[in-house]
Amino acid sequence: MTGVYLQLGYIDLAIASVLLLLAGGLSVAMNLGLEKSLGIAALRTAVQLTIIGMVLKILFALVSPWWTGLAALVMVMLAGYEVTARQTLKLKGGWGYSIATTSMIVAGGIVTILALTTAVRPEPWYDPRFALPLLGMMLGNTLTGVSVGMERLNATLKREKIAIEARLALGHTRRDAFRPYVREAMRAGLMPIINAMSAAGIISLPGMMTGQILAGVDPTEAVKYQILIMFLIAGTTSIGALMAVLATARRLSDERDRLRLDRLKDGAR
């Protein structure tokens, strides 16, 4: 069975796209106003995946640590942008982007390199055929955790401004005053991966496992890889969300233990 897979044609993709027309029709019928967003998202999906398919084909042939590293850097930078792009409250002056990007570089880099040098062990370890898909899965899930964690912390600190300033006025340090809200933000950031792990195998068959099965891999082997990936994603999301939330909390206070909501701005781009 290994190595047997079904090839898709453009007609197959066109048939699947009918479902997008259905979604757009529902949006029009219910006056949701999402038909344009659906169309743009679908177009972006097709164009972006087609381009990355061609780029990966070139990178796979080169097997260069420099080109693999450059591709990884571009992925992280774009992930940092996506974290802050739709936040309703964000840090001024590019701080949100810097914090998100740094958190994902550290978390994604540590966990991906750990996986490549211990569990997966390709030869060479930076082989883009293994390194880039692994990093992409780490970033895709960590992006959600970091974004949700930062958004929740920003919104909560603004909502609880009076309570926080009261505690600070009573002599509490910023760490003590912020602690319950940091915990709340961390819970929010980790909840998506906890839900995904809880539902895996019972409610859903995760993407990597499904892809391997469709490609002809034995289901028991596909399961092992999926368990590995889920554990790696949980670790990456935990590290990334923790770094982002703590850095955001620090930015929204100062060395004089004051709440600095003036460092926030409203409005999603």
Secondary-structure content class:
mainly alpha
The H-and-E topology, N to C, reads as HHHEHHHHHHE
The average pLDDT value, as a whole number, equals 90
End-to-end Cα distance: 48 Å
Query: What are the low-pLDDT stretches, counting only 5+ consecutive residues below 50?
Result: none
Total strands: the figure is 2
Shape descriptor reads globular
Report the radius of gyration as a whole number of Å: 21 Å
Level of helix content? over 70%
Our count of helices gives 9
Q: How many domains would you count in the coordinates? A: 2
- Major sheet attributes: 2 strands, antiparallel
Strand content: under 5%
Q: Which sequence of strands runs across the widest sheet?
A: 1-2
Question: Secondary-structure blueprint of this entry?
Answer:
Layout (H helix, E strand, L loop, with lengths): L9 H20 L5 H28 L2 H21 L3 E3 L3 H26 L7 H32 L1 H9 L4 H26 L7 H8 L4 H33 L12 E3 L3
Question: Any overview of this molecule?
Answer:
The protein is 75% helix and 2% strand. It is mainly alpha-helical and 269 residues long. It folds into two domains: 1-62, no CATH class; 64-266, no CATH class. The chain has a two-stranded antiparallel sheet with strand order 1-2. Helix 1 packs antiparallel against helix 2 (35-62). The radius of gyration is 21 Å and the shape is globular. The model has no long low-confidence stretch (mean pLDDT 90).
Describe this protein with a few key phrases.
269 residues; mainly alpha; two-stranded antiparallel sheet; 9 helices
